[in-house]
Design goal:
The chain has five helices and no strands. With about 180 residues, it is mainly alpha-helical. Helix 2 crosses helix 5, helix 3 packs antiparallel against helix 4 and helix 4 packs antiparallel against helix 5. The longest helix is centred in the middle third of the chain and has 41 residues. It is elongated and about 65 Å long.
Length: about 180
């Protein structure tokens, strides 16, 4: 019997959780994200309805407030679309890294309470930062840096690095590949 792989799969090409790489399994957070989005859509629908009602009164003050209220649903829809687009891009990048055997592995030591050891996170961060400095246009380096930031507890910078990785990945996909 073979030893378990560090990525959690038992066999090459197998994703953690036991599904083969060729079969697609829903990401864990997708049902929850879809449920919250559905609730948000109901809320936005209600807000938009109130805004339309205010505009329909013909009162100048209510028209102005109604137009302001209608902007909120547009902003919400735009932000939701932006986050889902990022999620799709990040999943595509993760699939690519998984196929290449280069997906980040969370093997940092943890406290009994589950917190990542800060010194180990800082030590693991430095090579990721250096990789981005060496190749600032490499989405893979930025992806790994994002997870290093996350391990270090800096969620804001992790998100920024992940957004940068996603932008570089989309840009790389749009460029035609050149054969030598």
């Amino acid at each position: 019997m073979s030893e378990p792989r560090p990525d959690g799969g038992d066999h090459p090409g197998e994703r953690p959780g036991g599904s083969a790489a060729s079969g697609r399994k829903l990401p864990k957070g997708l049902p929850g994200a879809l449920a919250v989005t559905a609730l948000l859509v109901l809320y936005v629908w209600q807000i938009a309805g109130r805004g339309v009602s205010m505009v329909g009164t013909g009162e100048p003050v209510l028209i102005a407030i109604g137009l302001g209220v209608l902007i909120i649903p547009l902003l919400v829809i735009g932000l939701i679309a932006r986050e889902y687009w990022l999620a799709v891009t990040v999943q595509r990048m993760a699939d690519t890294l998984f196929t290449e055997g280069n997906l980040p592995v969370d093997d940092l030591p943890r406290s009994p309470g589950g917190r990542i050891d800060r010194a180990a996170a800082d030590e693991a961060f430095e090579p990721r930062r250096a990789a981005v400095e060496a190749e600032p246009d490499d989405w893979r380096a930025w992806y790994h840096l994002a997870f290093a930031y996350d391990a270090a507890g800096d969620r804001r910078r992790a998100r920024e690095a992940l957004r940068k990785a996603a932008a570089l990945s989309r840009s790389a996909r749009r460029r035609p590949t050149r054969s030598p």
